[in-house]
Amino acid sequence: MMNLIRANQVSVEKMEAFLMNNENVKKDGLMKHGYVVELNDKIEGCFVLEEMDNEMYWLKQLYITKNEAAKLPVLLESILVLAKEQHAKKVYVHSHQPVVDIILDALQFHPQKGKLFVDKHTNQEGNWWSYQVS
Prior knowledge:
Mean pLDDT: 89
Strand order of the largest sheet: 1-2-3-4-5-7-6
Distance between the termini: 25 Å
């Protein structure tokens, strides 16, 4: 079963083990606005769902381990449910991988023109997508 847990509510030991095995995950943003994905009592992924403007959210740092990569579509659907619970109107995603683009398209995300929430950490490559939360 997949559980989404606020990163700041996970035991330090579990979080450190996850971060040690996944060095590309940025701990600061994750601890402030993020969630971890727990499968079989082990952290297998994470994401940050940060409110940018009034009811507009940016899904950042979406990550799932290679072992659990097949669960990415289910994870995205779970994130959209979470966004709806937080009264989000729209969720934006910046995708860097063609396989993620395919999944986003299948989940009825819409491609966006141009760069949206660009900050100093954002890679300029990739595609922006949005999802209208009902």
